[in-house]
Specification:
417 residues; mainly alpha; 0% strand
């Protein structure tokens, strides 16, 4: 007889403490950026252009990260996010070009990404293929399939070919009325805190695409569905202990399928953004590693929606800074990184983690020496700063992570009997 799984009452105190901690960390980071702007004179560190670009660049990464979180909360490792995003870019191009409707392009990208998720689910859940092998295969398959389809459908179209689609219809952009000019005037004065806040607010409230708003909305929606509904509890139980979940009547296969298909659909939304918002057409190689960076943002976010969004924002900011501010702004970040590492060394020393404290201190001192002895960074390092940030964040965040207990486990139906 199927037993009912009830959603436990949320612990209000823990939730409030977590929210307060996140707000404090966010406020501390913003204040540190203000001080860095004042010390180095790099105005792009907190400019509205950088903040707006951060939001835009964080959307595809955040969608991939959120998709990975859905999949891995059900126990299915998903490194096929890159391939699912690739399917999403092509699906958006196909549906929007041949219909002339950008909203049908959004639907096409979601469906194409979900198909990629379905392929991953069939391989891993039904046939028990190793999750890593299936994800790698999907990442190899997607570029080949989309190139073949592009050659078949776009080659004879004006501006299209085997590696790109013709120009696509665009989404409208929206701004909060009365925000642009007044805050732009405040920002130009470069007043401490006031101009920085004006740049932040102006950057995130102007020239917004519908996909950006959808991406922001999906973060609290995912949190509510996964942590405040019986469906979410069942899904997460499959990622923690599928055998116990099955013994309580949970349809484990069904939950895993649902999670991985949703994962692909979310990655597909990220692909739609790349093809129709960040660009005006589909192009081969457009995803350019964002699926992997999204996976890193998910790990950095400890498989929780709010922190996943924060991780996507971090990588988006790094990318925006190198695009907007160039070598000087990225060089200025060395000062912040060096001081941060020294503070981390003090904290680890206080916690009696001597080796970790020593490593942090040595690396932090080296970064500060690098900052004071140079005026700019090589262009190659500036260009790849988002990827370098990915590696550094994973290296220093790895010790506090807690992945779902059964993540990546090959599960066969009937294992609980």
């Amino acid at each position: 007889m199927e037993q009912e799984i009830r959603t436990p009452a949320p612990r209000t105190g823990d939730r409030e403490r977590r929210r307060t901690r996140m707000l404090a960390v966010g406020g501390g980071i913003f204040i540190a950026l203000i001080l860095l702007r004042l010390i180095t004179g790099e105005s792009d560190i907190t400019s509205s252009g950088t903040m707006g670009a951060t939001l835009a660049l964080a959307v595809p990464i955040g969608m991939a990260a959120l998709g990975g979180m859905w999949s891995e909360r059900s126990g299915v490792v998903n490194i096929g996010l890159e391939g699912m995003m690739t399917f999403g870019t092509w699906g958006a191009a196909f549906a929007s070009y041949f219909s002339g409707n950008p909203w049908l392009g959004l639907l096409g990208g979601i469906v194409a990404g979900a198909v990629g998720g379905l392929l991953h689910a069939v391989a891993t859940v039904t046939f028990g293929v190793d999750h890593i092998v299936s994800g790698v295969a999907l990442n190899i398959l997607a570029p080949g399939v989309t190139r073949y389809l592009s050659d078949l459908l776009f080659t004879d179209e004006k501006g299209g070919g085997a590696t790109q689609s013709p120009p696509l219809p665009s989404f409208p952009t929206w701004s909060v009325p009365g925000v642009g000019k007044p805050l732009g005037s405040l920002e130009k004065h470069h007043w401490i805190l006031i101009s920085d806040l004006a740049g932040l607010v102006r950057g995130v409230l102007t020239n917004l695409s519908p996909i950006t708003l959808l991406g922001i909305l999906l973060v609290p929606v995912s949190y509510y569905l996964l942590w405040h509904t019986a469906f979410g509890l069942r899904l997460r139980s499959c990622g923690e202990n599928p055998v116990a979940a099955e013994s309580l009547g949970v349809k484990v296969y069904r939950m895993k399928y649902a999670a991985v298909v949703v994962s692909g659909a979310l990655a597909g939304i990220g692909g739609v953004f790349l093809a129709m918002v960040a660009s005006s057409n589909y192009q081969e190689g457009q995803v350019n590693g964002r699926g992997y960076i999204g996976l890193a943002a998910m790990i950095f976010g400890n498989w929780r929606p709010g922190m996943v969004a924060g991780g996507a924002g971090l990588f988006g900011y790094t990318d925006a800074l190198q695009l907007r501010g160039g070598a000087g702004a990225v060089h200025a970040m060395l000062l912040l990184i060096g001081i941060g590492l020294l503070a981390l060394a003090v904290w680890r020393g206080y916690r009696r983690r001597v080796v970790a404290a020593a490593v942090s201190a040595v690396v932090g001192a080296g970064v500060l020496v690098w900052f004071f002895l140079t005026d700019a960074l090589p262009r190659e390092i500036v260009t790849y700063s988002p990827h370098i940030t990915t590696l550094l964040v994973l290296a220093f965040a790895a010790q506090r992570l807690r992945m779902p207990a059964a993540d990546g486990m090959r599960y066969r139906r009937g294992g609980g009997h």
